[in-house]
Specification:
Layout: H1 3-21, E1 66-69, E2 73-76, H2 77-99, E3 104-107, E4 115-121, H3 132-160, H4 180-195, H5 202-216, H6 222-231, E5 237-238, E6 244-245, E7 247-249, E8 257-259, E9 276-278, H7 283-287, E10 291-297, H8 303-310, E11 315-316, H9 317-335, E12 338-340
Parallel strand pairs: 7-12
Antiparallel strand pairs: 1-2, 3-4, 4-10, 5-6, 8-9, 10-11
Helix pairs in contact: 2-3, 2-4, 3-4, 3-9, 4-5
Length: 341
C-alpha cells in the first residue's frame, strides 16, 4: 500500500471513530475530513474522474482528496462536499424556522463544540404578506448559504487560535491554508444551485454540478496536482508528517468575493487567471424586511484569547470576523508567513 493509500485508509478509520464519538448537533450532516494541500505523508491526491458520486448520507461510493485546477488552484473535494451538505442542512433549517414563525435556531458542525445562533426578526405585516412561500424559499437559500459559509470561516478562525479538531487533531497548520476558503465557498455555491434544482435529487444534482465545475475550472490530472504541491515545498510549507504551512489565504470575502490562490508555473495552466467567487450576502433577505444576526458561541478552551482579540465577549459574524481577521493577518506577518488576503 502506498503512503497516500495508507493515509486515506487511516483517515477513514479516524472519521468513523470520531463520527461515532462526536456527532455534533442532532441531525447535522456527517463529518468530513479534508487535507492540507502539501505533498506530504498521508495527504491524498485524487484522480478527478474517480471522485465518485456525491452522497449526503453516509456512503463509501464517493471519495475525496485534493485536485489541482488551473483557475481555482488546489481544491479539496471533502471541503466542497462538506460545505455543500451544511448549506443544504441550513437552508432546510431556515425554511423550517420561517414556516413555523420562529425567531431563531441553533446549529453546529459535526465534531465541533461551537454553536451558531441564527436570529430572525420578521418584517412588519409578515402574517398578512402575500406570496409568503416564494419569499420563504428565497430567504432560506440566502440565509442558509450565509450561515454555512460563516461556519466554515469560524472553523478556520478558532483553529488559528489553537482549537483542535474533536479535541485531538492539531489544526493550526491547516487554518486558512491556501485552498480552504475557496473550496468551502465553492461547495456553498454548488449546494445553492443543487437545492434550486427541481428536476433532480440533491445528490444527483451535486454529482453533476461538481463534475461540470471542475471541468470549467480546468481540473488537471493527479500527477499535475502532486507536482504542483512539490513545486512549492520549502517556500509554502516545510516538514512532512505535520508540515508547517507558511502560505495562507485570508480572503474571506470582505470585499465581496473570494479569489483562489494559484500555484505559479504549473505545467498545463499557462496563462490561467484565478477564479473569484461571490461571498454570500443577505441582500434579498434585507430587501424583504428581515433582519438576520449570526452569533457564535465558541465553547472552546481558546475562547478567552478569541474574545480578547475581538474586543468582545459576544461574537457576531458581521461585526467581529473583520476584527479577528486583522488580528490573524498581523499574527501571520509576525510569524514571517506568506499570505493572500
Amino acid at each position: 500500500m502506498s503512503d497516500r493509500s495508507a493515509g486515506q485508509a487511516a483517515q477513514t478509520v479516524i472519521w468513523v471513530v470520531l463520527s461515532a464519538a462526536m456527532a455534533g448537533c442532532a441531525d447535522t450532516p456527517r463529518m468530513r475530513l479534508g487535507y492540507i494541500p502539501t505533498a506530504t505523508l498521508g495527504v491524498v491526491f485524487a484522480e478527478p474522474e474517480k471522485i465518485g458520486p456525491h452522497a449526503y448520507a453516509f456512503s463509501l461510493s464517493g471519495s475525496g482528496g485534493l485536485v489541482y485546477t488551473c483557475r481555482g488552484g488546489v481544491v479539496d473535494i471533502d471541503h466542497i462536499r462538506g460545505a455543500a451538505d451544511n448549506t443544504r442542512y441550513l437552508i432546510q433549517q431556515t425554511r423550517k424556522t420561517l414556516k413555523g414563525g420562529q425567531s431563531e435556531f441553533v446549529h453546529c458542525l459535526s465534531g465541533e463544540m461551537s454553536r451558531h445562533r441564527i436570529t430572525i426578526t420578521y418584517p412588519a405585516g409578515w402574517t398578512d404578506r402575500p406570496n409568503k412561500e416564494a419569499i420563504i424559499e428565497e430567504v432560506a437559500v440566502e440565509v442558509g448559504a450565509y450561515a454555512a459559509f460563516n461556519a466554515t470561516i469560524w472553523h478556520e478562525i478558532m483553529t488559528w487560535f489553537g482549537t483542535r479538531f474533536a479535541g485531538i487533531e492539531p489544526e493550526f497548520n491547516s487554518a486558512f491554508s491556501w485552498e480552504d476558503t475557496y473550496s468551502n465557498l465553492l461547495g456553498v455555491h454548488l449546494a445553492k444551485e443543487a437545492m434550486r434544482d427541481t428536476h433532480r435529487s440533491y445528490d444527483t444534482a451535486m454529482t453533476t454540478l461538481l463534475t461540470e465545475t471542475l471541468r470549467e475550472l480546468q481540473v488537471q490530472p493527479r500527477s499535475t496536482a502532486i507536482a504542483a504541491a512539490e513545486s512549492v515545498r520549502g517556500r509554502w510549507y516545510t516538514g512532512n508528517l505535520v508540515p508547517d504551512v507558511t502560505m495562507r489565504n485570508f480572503d474571506i470575502g470582505l470585499d465581496g468575493s473570494v479569489t483562489a490562490t494559484l500555484i505559479p508555473n504549473v505545467s498545463g495552466c499557462e496563462g490561467a487567471t484565478a477564479d473569484a467567487l461571490a461571498a454570500p450576502t443577505l441582500e434579498k433577505t434585507t430587501a424583504y424586511g428581515f433582519t438576520i444576526t449570526h452569533e457564535i458561541l465558541p465553547y472552546v478552551l481558546e475562547q478567552g484569547a478569541i474574545f480578547k482579540a475581538a474586543g468582545s465577549n459576544r461574537l457576531f459574524a458581521d461585526v467581529h470576523f473583520p476584527i479577528l481577521m486583522e488580528h490573524i493577518i498581523n499574527d501571520a506577518a509576525a510569524r514571517g508567513y506568506r499570505f493572500d488576503k
